Amino acid sequence: MAEVTAESRIEASAAKVWAQLTDWAAYGEWSMTHTNFPGGGPETLAVGATFAENMKMMGFPAEVAWTVSELEDERLFAITGKGPMGVAILTRYTLIPDGAATTVRIDGEFNGAAVSLMAGKLKDSASAALNESLRKLAGLVA
Question: Superkingdom of the source (predicted)?
Fold first, then answer.
C-alpha cells in the first residue's frame, strides 16, 4: 500500500472551495492528475454515484472507475476506485472551515500487487501532484 497526504490553508470559505472542488467541468483547471471525465462527472453527487475518470499518474495514462463512498456537503468527499492492473484507489477531500479560510486536506491510498513494486515512486509522484493541485485550487478560489 502507498499512502499520501497533502494539506493547505486556502483563503476562501468552505462553500467556495466546495463549489470549485465539485465543478466537474473545471476539474482540469486545478487537478494535476486529471485528464478528463469520459462521461462527465457524477450526475448527482451522492454516496453510491459512479463515474469514470481518465488520469495521468507518474506520466502514464490510467482510467479509473470511481464510486462516491463518503459525502458531507462542504466538509467531506471521498471516492474509491479501480484502476489499471487491479490497483484500488481511495481519494478523500476534507474541508475544515477556519474563519474566512478553509484548511483542505487530500488523502490518497493505493493498494494492489502493482503498487508494491513502485510504492516509493508512486508516493513521491502523487504527493507532488496533490500539493500542486492544492496550490492551483487556492489560486482559483482566492
Answer: Bacteria
